[in-house]
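Revision sheet: structure tokens.
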Amino acid sequence: MPEVLDCWFESGSMPYAQKHYPFENQEKFERGFPAKFIGEGQDQTRGWFYNLHILATILTLGEDSPIPTEEMQPAFKNVVVNGMVLAEDGEKMSKSKGNYPDPMGIVENYGADALRYYFLTSPVVREESLKFQEKEVRDIYNKLLNMMYNIHNFYSMFEDEIDLDQVINFEPEQEYKSLHELDKWVIAKLHKLIKEVTENMDNYMLDKATRPIQDFVLDLSQWYVRRSRERFKSQDQQETQQAMNVLHYVFDNLFRVIAPFTPFIAEKLYQKIKPENESVHLQDWPEYKEELIDEEVIEETQQIRKLAEIGQSLRQSEHIKLRQPLPEFATGDVDLSNQAKEVLADELNVNKIVQQETEQGEWLEQEEDGYNVA
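Predicted:
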């Protein structure tokens, strides 16, 4: 019987065959070999991944090998392996069973970005199986994509009232001392996000890179924009200008961060804030600045929000509506700055924030996550 050759040999030869190496394109080949990463399904462990690796090993054994090298080279340095996408009931998706939604219907209802982000944040990028849930795609549309549109719509309401040159040229490092605490917090959170996304992308941890984005957008909407509304509407032009400077700065960096993951909304929103620029996909990746990641500001804001959450829970348990002012709120072991106390008092609609309970009146107490408040 004549010799036969496994057809996978051809696939394993891809790095060399595509450039007709070693007969030509030597410099071009060496620039791209070994590949920085490869991505495919888990079924390629025995197929493509294996044959690429075996052939590269044989061809780069040393100085006398077909590809002379000082040491053995792999065909790729990193590998991203996809798991299997299953039906909602955990069964394999089957056309005959009809146990999955129409993919184009998902895209038409929620957009390609929502579906893309759903997969990127799921276990499927870690070689684990995923039970497809349309509800989770819908949640991403509502809690991430639609929320970004709403934040930008809010921003656009005040665009005609500000100096656009100041907005475009804003540099937080130069004005940091004069910034509002909310501005310092959102800038710190932004640069922490850029750092987290960058480091996880460098390590090919796609789910860890993408998940913090939704948390940041939620914080941006539910805390920064909500707490800053009066500043945007202020009669003080400089106060409005500063808030707009910061929000534009956040947008500029955020839209570049989300561009690889949600490319369509990133492009649309980036063109709205930078219509004179080229595509967001042609911009530089944003760089985080350690000096702007103020952990003290982040920690104090986290404490305020947690105390506010517990305080509002206390009100609900006693059926006391938020519009009814209360005399005092005790933070227990948490010692807040005067500015933080003002924010918390406003969030809870109380007249005064104290650290310990006073003897006057009747106190309601609650302990949660290490916080003991009254």
